[in-house]
Design a protein that fits this description.
Layout (H helix, E strand, L loop, with lengths): L3 E6 L12 E5 L4 H10 L4 E4 L2 H10 L4 E4 L15 H5 L8 E4 L3 H8 L4 E5 L4 H8 L5 E6 L8 H16 L3 E2 L2 H10 L11 H8 L3 H9 L8 E4 L2 E4 L5
Parallel strand pairs: 1-7, 1-8, 2-6, 2-7, 3-5, 4-5
Antiparallel strand pairs: 6-9, 9-10
Helix pairs in contact: 5-6, 6-7
């Protein structure tokens, strides 16, 4: 049976891969990094696509930690912005996290209704790739996109996930996927630094998150899936 992988971006692209695909959602700066960091520490994580969707989710959670940003601004009433570095230093892991972002949580929300959905970032891209092998015949690796752009950090992470699959025999579904795999093959960990997302973090004094990302490459050996509106760690052998 033939196996294939495709790289795409933007939340709305999910509609092309609803049937027969496993989706890998990627938003390195910063939603999927924040989600994976939270769950790896034992915190429950519920990504939501909008403020309107956040309200009923928050109402059913016990003392939720409201984390997020929209257009770079923390919504009124939230506890903290979408910062994996800040989250990693919190000790209230018993509080479930509601996560909202401009595009990353929209992507995760849409992906949850596909045949299978995973969350990846530069902390666990290798673990996700290895988990996919042999479990899913067709894989769509999708970057969230920021302001309609496929930013370098997401390109690199998507390409590294796809590269493992291609080297295992999965066929790239289009030339763009092949080009991205080749572009980022063997790239240095900091090769995404020219990204506008990085520029934004620097301009707004949020370089702690950039430092956190650069200091945590492939340090998690687990895949994370989206099930019933929640990001969960995949148990070994699952």
């Amino acid at each position: 049976m033939s196996q294939s992988v495709v790289i795409d971006f933007l939340p709305e692209s999910v509609r092309h891969y609803r049937d027969g695909y496993a989706i890998v959602a990627i938003d390195v700066i910063r939603a999927t990094t924040t989600a994976v960091t939270a769950v790896s520490m034992g915190r429950r994580c519920f990504p939501v696509p909008s403020i309107e969707a956040a309200l009923p989710v928050a109402a059913r959670l016990d003392n939720p930690l409201l984390v997020g940003e929209l257009g770079g601004n923390m919504p009124f009433g939230f506890d903290m912005t979408n910062s994996p570095a800040e989250l990693a230093h919190r000790r209230d892991v018993m509080r479930p996290m509601l996560l909202l972002s401009s595009s990353g949580t929209q992507l995760m929300h849409l992906a949850k209704d596909c045949d299978a959905a995973y969350v990846a970032c530069l902390r666990n891209h290798s673990a996700v790739s290895q988990h996919l092998l042999g479990r899913h015949r067709r894989v769509a690796v999708i970057g969230a996109g920021t302001r309609g752009e496929f930013r370098e950090e997401d390109q690199m992470c998507c390409a590294w996930v796809a590269q493992v699959l291609v080297e295992a025999g999965y066929a790239p579904e289009d030339s763009k996927t092949q080009e991205l795999v080749e572009r980022w093959r063997g790239a240095a960990n900091d090769a995404f630094l020219p990204s506008k997302s990085v520029e934004y973090l620097r301009k707004t004094g949020q370089t702690r998150d950039l430092e956190f990302i650069l200091e945590h490459f492939n340090d998690l050996r687990a895949a994370f899936a989206i099930k019933h509106d929640e990001v969960t760690m995949v148990a070994p052998g699952e």
